[in-house]
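Q: GLPGLI family protein, please. Structure only.
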Amino acid sequence: MKCLFRVLLCVVTVAVFYHPVQAQTTTFEVRIANHAVGTIEAQRKVSGSAKSITIKTRIQTLLARINSDILNEYDNNVLTLAKSTRVAGKKGEDKETTTRRNGNDYTVMLNGARSVIDNTEIAHCVADLYFSEPKQVSRIFSEALGKFLPLHPLGSGQYELVLPEGKKNIYKYSNGVLTEVEVNHTFGRALFIKTI
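A: Structure for GLPGLI family protein:
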């Protein structure tokens, strides 16, 4: 009887304290001038009130090689930490940004320069766009730039993210799932097309 009680106690303990981690991974092909030049792997993990999102971008063209990584951590859907790195291999083009929540504020370190975003909670970041349609969202926090950017609905599941220099990226959703991103960059127009 004691053995049965111990086994039952172990099973109940595991059932109560075990929080399964739910993971979702999505892959996009990066295309420039209709040629595949790289991939983006986006992964979201949820465990209880904690969530993390990782975005890995690998691009190789004749003129450049760019590796970009974003890691976001959330608690109760509020950003607590964002780390963004971009390595382009060219002088002055590498970028590292860390955003950390401190009470009601965020400290942003962008290539060694410190700034503070006062009295706010960051609930929507660029990385979130890979996993959910931003209905009723008017601004998105850019992990790479360390600031909020305006987001405009265009209708038919399309949203326009306006970058500081005036360029616009278009995020396209079908049934709430991101299927394509149109990016206007230095190289010209690039497309991120969902493959998985």
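A: Brief note, in case it's useful. Helices lie at 2-17.
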